[in-house]
Structure formats: structure tokens, C-alpha cells
Amino acid sequence: MATEQHSQEGVVKHRHRHEGPQKHIVVFIFSIVLTLIAFAAVAAGGVNPAFAVVLLLVMAVLQVFVQMGFWMHLKDRGHLIPIIFMIGGFFVAGTSIIMALYWVWWD
Per residue in 51-69, pLDDT tens? Predict the structure, then answer.
């Protein structure tokens, strides 16, 4: 969060508050919990395989958002261009995968 600091000339300087380690620790614990949930779903053995696959995909997507948002700092200002390029890359990769599957299973 930005705070305002007035100088003697009347110019407003914006200072960004330093992000402390508390948030990083919470996000790290959240990442570990997501990993443990995914591991437990597979290690349990009695879980329906379709449910396990869906659960693993959901955990993977959440991990991607956590990794990119907090560890790659994409939640901060000034990261619009990398975000746009990553969305473009996801679009190209997703389209390629869908077209490859369509091509393989074409009758």
C-alpha cells in the first residue's frame, strides 16, 4: 500500500510500504497445503480416479496463480506486459493441445 509523504516544497512523494515476510510465510504454507492435498488424494488409493484427476488439475491451477502472483510478483504494478505475453502463451499452448488431440482422434 502506498503512503503519502509531503516534502517542504509541497511536492507529494509516494512511498511504497515494504511487503514483510508474514505474507510470504502465509503463501508458502498455502503452497505446501495445496501440495499435501494433491499428494493425499493420490496416496489414499480409494479415491475415484476421475475425481483425483480433477482435484489435481484444480490444485495445479491454484499453484500456478500462487507462484505467479506472489513469487514472481505479477500482482505488483508494472507487470502488465509480462502478464499479456503469458496469457498469449497459455492461449497458444492450449490451442496447440486442443488441436493435437483433435488431430489424433479425428475419424
Answer: 888 989 999 988 888 888 7
**47 and 68 housed in the same domain:** yes
Number of separate domains in the chain? 2
pTM: 0.57
Cα–Cα distance between 33 and 16 in angstroms, integer? 30
Phi/psi-derived region of residue 18, left when phi > 0, alpha when psi is between -120 and 50, beta in every other case: beta
Put residue 35 in one of left, alpha, beta given phi > 0 → left and psi -120 to 50 → alpha: alpha
How far is it, in rounded angstroms, from Cα 98 to Cα 52?
22
Say which DSSP state 67 is in. Answer: I
Nine cell digits for residue 63:
499453484
CA dist 36 → 20, 22, 42, 58 (Å): 25, 21, 10, 13
